[in-house]
């Protein structure tokens, strides 16, 4: 398999504000520099695309210096926060808009599903739009005819197929648009976050179809989604965009972990200084480490995990206080809670140790939410995602060929053979 898509130094610049508010002068300046054979002066200005802050420049780089290659049959998941540049990149790849700088080299046809009803004419019926989209993709009428029944059956819109698309719901438009894009056999299928409009049944069908396209037909898929479970199950490689630049490119699981922990410290130790200093307590630090190991050592799958909480209670009082944690996986799903309910916090400095059994957690990134609970009934302090820690793969003899085992917990069970 060779390279089917090559992106070289792609950037896209936009001018902020309303059209006509001084843009003519900039256009004339650009033209004058071009006539004189000089570089566009506005390529040297502009700020990275951070939607949450007010900038000083009138120009912003939606994406900046993007370089990557995609192999035939590969499913590339593109993830990132809102405004990271995902949709801009896909629009450039689909030739909806052109790049400010850079080149794109592709082999074969590209079908894109970027927005609800992309490429559909609202006055035409669903059936007519199937033929219209096929013609845009460069297919003959006979080729489209041979796929027509499959497209209609997959979309589930057979009853409305001869009704103008303007009367379709958003979900029906996505169903039909996806069916057209998938069944007309493009070499590269580009899908933005539109499947979320469909219902659960259609999302399952669509993901199954994308797997068939990539694995069965050997075609290439570029997939943008905020559904991390779908990205992990579907994609063979992941790319994380941050403020218009590639922040990570590599294994899908690692890409999802990188995206989800963005903004979290990577160490398994968190020192808080005076961040949590109130009338009741001072929280000094939380440490996750392998038992009998140093704090800087990696936590391996087969380690006995130790969680250390260092906290000072400022005054003695009749109430009893204890610490509770909630543990979450890298997808934000709650795994379980645990607490020091049988051990009360004392006045002064407390160093609590909580031990997990050996080989209890599988490899992955874990997040902790912290609670101080009064009299085992009421939480008087809550801090979500107070820290994270990472468990890395250990050498496994049995089942190592199967790759990463499913789930997050690895319970140690007792087996008996009672046949005698």
End-to-end C-alpha gap:
56 Å
Quaternary structure type: single chain
Q: Output the number of helix runs.
A: 8
Radius of gyration: 27 Å
Descriptive notes:
With 420 residues, the protein is an alpha/beta fold. The chain is 22% helix and 34% strand. It is built from 8 helices and 19 strands. The strands form 4 sheets. A 6-stranded mixed β-sheet has the order 6-7-8-4-9-10, with helices on both faces. Strands 13-19-18-15-16 form a 5-stranded mixed β-sheet, with no helix packed on it. Strand 18 and strand 19 form a beta hairpin. Helix 4 crosses helix 5 and helix 5 packs parallel to helix 6. The longest helix has 17 residues. The radius of gyration is 27 Å and the shape is globular. About 3% of the residues have low confidence.
Condensed summary:
The chain contains eight helices and 19 strands.
Indicate the topology.
Elements: E1 3-15, H1 23-35, E2 47-48, E3 59-71, E4 75-80, H2 86-93, E5 101-106, E6 110-113, H3 126-136, H4 141-155, H5 170-183, E7 188-191, H6 200-216, E8 220-224, H7 228-234, E9 237-242, E10 245-250, H8 252-260, E11 269-271, E12 281-290, E13 299-300, E14 304-313, E15 321-328, E16 334-339, E17 348-358, E18 364-374, E19 378-392
Parallel strand pairs: 2-3, 4-8, 4-9, 6-7, 7-8, 13-19
Antiparallel strand pairs: 1-3, 1-5, 9-10, 11-12, 12-14, 14-17, 15-16, 15-18, 18-19
